[in-house]
Design a protein that fits this description.
- The protein is built from eight helices and eleven strands.
- By secondary structure, it is an alpha+beta fold.
- It has two domains: about 5-185, Maf protein; about 195-290.
- The strands form two sheets. A six-stranded mixed beta sheet has the order 2-1-3-4-5-6, with helices on both faces. Strands 7-8-9-10-11 form a five-stranded antiparallel beta sheet, covered by helices on one side.
- A hairpin with a 5-residue loop joins strand 4 and strand 5 (about 125-135).
- It starts with a strand and ends in a 6-residue tail after the last strand.
Length: about 300
């Protein structure tokens, strides 16, 4: 398969290198620009879209463009720095020092990393991918790998910081890794698994809208293919990692309704949980029914 080339519309060189590692078979080139737009969005997605659209202004049509926005949300700080993470303080030691200063004496140190990717295809279709990593803030920096707040972020289930766990660990577990996997799924299972099917243009448009606009679907979007078909996925049954299959199907009901079916199956298909989303063709969810075994978590 030929390598896919995309331009990451970001001033952060670390992100371009990391994203290329996270997308095997892709070449990620940084956008060369001097004046960048203000990140005026109220969400990560809006800011990622601003960056991708800026790339379109700079490079014109025919390019594959990626906008990314991410942040650290700390519970004790009311979710700050959040979308202001890059502007909270100069990246690295200064930002970490400010964060630890604000948390001095605070015992509740839960936090999460959030990443949102927005890709504009050469035809200017928009595809997105979301990823989160839950954890807590350490009392002091530890480790030298990674960047940003990695030396003080301890992922859930770990005792080491991301700075100690290192770049190899990040390639499989980071919030940006999860967003990248969701983005690949959104672009179509053909990029990672042949024979996924689901080529009907109307169905594709409905599914894209469903996964990008519905909060319920966005929460499930990391593991389900964003087109009709089945992909392998990794879930967790209590503390046990489970190899499963995650399937998406869509039935268009004339004139304006559709049913999107999401099924996770595990234990060699002996167990399954299914969501039936009854939606309008613009992706708006009217109702949802669940049946089967209790749903697993990603």
């Amino acid at each position: 398969m030929d390598r896919l080339t995309a331009t990451l519309c970001s001033r952060n060189a670390h992100k371009a290198r990391e994203l290329e590692r996270l997308l095997p078979g892709w070449t990620i080139e940084p956008l060369d620009a001097e004046e960048w737009p203000e990140e005026t969005g109220s969400t990560y997605v809006e800011n990622a879209r601003i960056k991708a659209r800026f790339g379109r202004e700079v490079l014109g049509s025919g390019h594959r463009l990626i906008g990314e926005d991410s942040g650290l949300e700390v519970g004790a700080l009311g979710g700050r720095p959040g979308i202001q993470s890059a502007r909270y303080a100069p990246e690295g030691a200064a930002a970490i020092a400010k964060l630890l200063g604000e948390l001095d004496g605070v015992t509740e140190r839960s936090a999460r990393y959030v990443s949102e990717l927005v890709l504009l295809t050469p035809d200017d279709d928009e595809v997105g991918g979301s990823g989160t990593l839950v954890g807590r803030i350490a009392d002091e920096p530890r480790g030298t790998e990674g960047f940003g707040y990695d030396p003080v972020f301890i992922p859930e289930g770990e005792e080491l910081t991301v700075g100690e766990l290192g770049d190899v660990w990040k390639e499989s577990h980071s919030h940006r890794a999860r967003a990248a996997r969701a983005l690949v799924a959104a672009l179509g299972a053909a990029l990672v698994l042949a024979g996924c099917g689901g080529t009907d243009p109307t169905a594709m448009r409905v599914l894209r809208s469903f996964f990008s606009k519905s909060p319920e679907a966005r929460a499930l979007g990391e593991r389900f293919p964003h087109r009709a078909g089945t992909l392998p996925c990794v879930l967790h049954d209590k503390a046990v990692t489970v190899q499963a299959s995650c399937a998406t199907d869509i039935s268009l009901v004339k004139p304006a309704r559709a049913v999107v079916t999401l099924t996770e199956a595990w234990n060699h298909g002996a167990k399954a949980h299914t969501w039936f989303f009854f939606i309008r063709r613009d992706g708006t969810v009217q109702s949802v029914i669940q049946e089967g075994e209790p749903a697993l978590r990603p």
